[in-house]
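WARN no homologs supplied; continuing
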Amino acid sequence: MIGCHLGRCFQVTVAGGSYQEGLSAVLQGVPAGMRITEKEIYGDLLLRKPGTDELSSPRKEPDLPVIYSGLNAADTVENAGNRNKTNGTPFCILIPNLDRHFIHIKQYQDTNRTPRPGHASYASFKKYGESDDAIGAGIFSGRYTSTIVAAGAVAKKILKKLGIDVFAYVREAAGVNCGEINPADALTYTESYKKMRRDYDPFYQEIYEKKRIHEEMRFLEKMKIFAEIEKEIDDIRAKAPEINEEEILDRYNVHSVINCPDLDTAKEMIKAVNKITETGDSSGGVVELVINGIPAGLGEPVFFKLDAELGRMLGIGAVKAVEIGAGIRVKDMTGYECNDQIHSENKKVIFDSNNAGGITGGLATGQSIIVRLAIKPTPTINKKQHTIDKYTLENKELGAITRRDPTIVARIWPVAENYTALVLLDHLIVHYGYQKLMEITW
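OK structure emitted
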């Protein structure tokens, strides 16, 4: 399986599956001397994981990460102070599957002869044959996106040090679209939403805030705790604070369920999604990404254009379209309308608009980069559908399935945010290296 690798200078390789022992992400290019903790990584993973609200699947995976390699096990010399700091070697993150029960495996075994429409189950069977990992869709399950989020959490921390912000939110859900949003306000809102989710997440509070797992523990000590947690998932979840919409609004000024910076629109999104869900069906939406602080000139021509690299987010299973800036709307513009005209103010370059989304010729212009992703409806639905027996090719009927996400858009935005961070950091290493080379040779 050669498709599970990304990057040139900052590289990520992912592995695992929905019902295998777990998943992993191996990062190469992480700078030495950096502090990164499992608590920080989990702070992003909890935004993606299922079973947290009315818009997500009831699966109860806590998505707790374990840093397996890439950190110094002790100070390299006495009192050096570099214990638990990155050492430049491959940085490996493990995410064990803890909510893996035979009853769920049996449900897949009972239906795996009949591919689920909208899923990869028929295509993957044709590619890998009878040994295709069809339990829970294997690596084609949305579960694999946890590896992207974990890896991207590391990349985002590095980008933050460089003054670069990458953030995402839900722009549209079930046909309900919010209007134009000030990027600065959207960033403030998104950061507040993330804090709310950490404060209300029982695993963040019970495992990390109370230091049940901490940096000074060895891997096997952590695994002992994981074995305990596996039996306590329901008990820990029961400790979650009760969601009080008014209290959350007053304390954080965010919606309690969906990360949309327009509160009135967020409420309408929830209503629209639930209305479709009540019929047994599912819905899609749009995620918008904003990147601030990117240096002008970042990117490469032809095959590694920055916008083309961001288009790799079609690799996120539910994403069916990626647009930069005005995107598909450019077809209805004239050249004069579409061009982002330029002027100077106090010796600073100012663009009159941003239809290009901050990228021209595959290179960053220095403006905010704007990316939107079209997210398809959840293919697993509570309605009967016609399909086939993949062994005999007989026509069959697939029964309704209730264990599902009503919409995926509310869980995709952190995946998109962290995927973007991986692409940007890879390009930045190339960019800074090239700039330094020019400085030396001139």
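The radius of gyration is 23 Å.
OK
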